[in-house]
Amino acid sequence: MDIEIDGVLKTAKVKASACAIVCVLGWSTLGHAATWTKLTNAAPSGVGTMVLLTDGTVMVQGNPYDTWLRLSPSATGSYVDGTWSALAPMSKARLYFSLNVLPSGKVWVLGGEYSGTPLQQNITNTGELYDPLANTWAPVTDFPEQYFGDDPSMLLPNGKILAGSIFTNQTYLYDIASNSWSFGGSKVYPDRSDEETWVKMVRGKVLTYDLFESVAQNGQYAETYDPTTHTWSSISPSDGSARGTIPALSSAAIGYELGPFLKVRGNGVQGQIFGIGATGHTALYSPSTNTWAPGPDVFGSLAGKSVLFGSDDAPGAVIPSGHVVFAADAGPTSGLFSPPTQLFDYDPVANSITPLSPSIPDSNLGSIAAFITRLLVLPNGQILFSDSSRQLWVYSPDGAPQRSWVPVFSNVKYSGAGVFTLHGVRMNGQSAGSSYGDDVESDENYPIVRLQDAAGHVYYGRTTNWAKTGVGQGANEETVDFTLKTGMVPGNYSIIVSGAGISSTPRCVTITSDQIKGVGGASNAAITCHGN
Predict the structure, then answer these.
(1) DSSP assignment string, 341-381
(2) Is the pTM here over 0.70, yes or no?
(3) How many structural domains compose the chain?
(4) I need a labelling partner for 59 at 20 to 30 A (CA). Which of 91, 132, 369, 384 fits?
């Protein structure tokens, strides 16, 4: 029979009628008109950084800034109707810091531009590791330099994290297993990583726009990092190492700030990087031709006039259709961090920017700058939005992903010890999902697994040990482990895997009593219906 998943018609070859209803009930589709919805329950405090945990819950920084909250979806998987709970606090307050979700499911935090008492600007080099299962924080080895602050970092393959320097052009590698640091290579130019936005490319490299060098030289400088050779290489039109033109994306007048950078696919060009500047200008980099090009400028409405808006520290997120939703404010026109904040839509195929439709009915945006807003892609393709108040919003976008972006898994293996393994392709997602300037990191290109029973109850598994850390992996096989949520009963379930908001077609699986208990022999879980 035909079913619609994420706005795309699929055919389910139902092999067990008892499971058929599970395969089609309840999963959010993206074929409807876009809408904004307030969360039913306001957060206990104002919120800051948001990060998607591997069990489908959202970890949210509260106020005071050492506190953390958890948003858990409802029994039917609704984030709009989700509930809040308190998590263990960090050892110190940290505002604007580096963060990565690790393949263990733990959350690694480093630095803090403001982390003194009371919240002084002391650009600390300390870090912590959060264990969601134990609900505890533990210290990690200090960054090798005296200061770190809000510099960028990036999860790499083979258990490493790349981190920049706030005062030098050096970079460092953190080894997750040994909790130790080593030298990661110097950038080509004398450009510190402070204020930069790092973005992951298709083949695993990391791209950065050298904003200090570009501003100082009135030039066009950018670099990529190769995690295999641990070397930086120039991709700069100013020195001839790349073609094209990079428009000025930052300036001294606007605080050397920068907006989100995200991988997109425009006009059939796979792996393009779209960068949003604080100046109202945007840029596109095409790795296949090593070419930069100006993107469309950002125009917002100020006092009834169309003027330049910029992302001077601001969030962006790729929705399943491939469009980019992002925030910008009147900074280029009225000065750094100037309200109002407005939300925009970038269409990578048309290469155009328009106000996001429908506009969010959030009256706070008229009086705030974009840097206090946040965007996070949820596993069902919705977007969670925060203006730093207690009231959060969910954006349900229209449009559907291209079929070639959709995750596919071939089987579900049970280890015999309570752990399942999915084998498939494209499970990590086509992009990092969400991005910001240097102050906030919320990459979510890792698989999330959810199951649903015939009554419509949704159970998120807890994923760990995903084999790939890249984006847009294509036909390269990926694996991910997951464990079941407590409260499940034996029976037939629909199972789906998503990466950065793009979901697979549901498949039906039979979960046994032994598998729920975490006992019994290793086997393939019985898949009783298949989606094409």
Answers:
(1) EEEEEEETTTTEEEE-SSPP--GGGGGS-GGG-EEEE-TTS
(2) yes
(3) 1
(4) 369
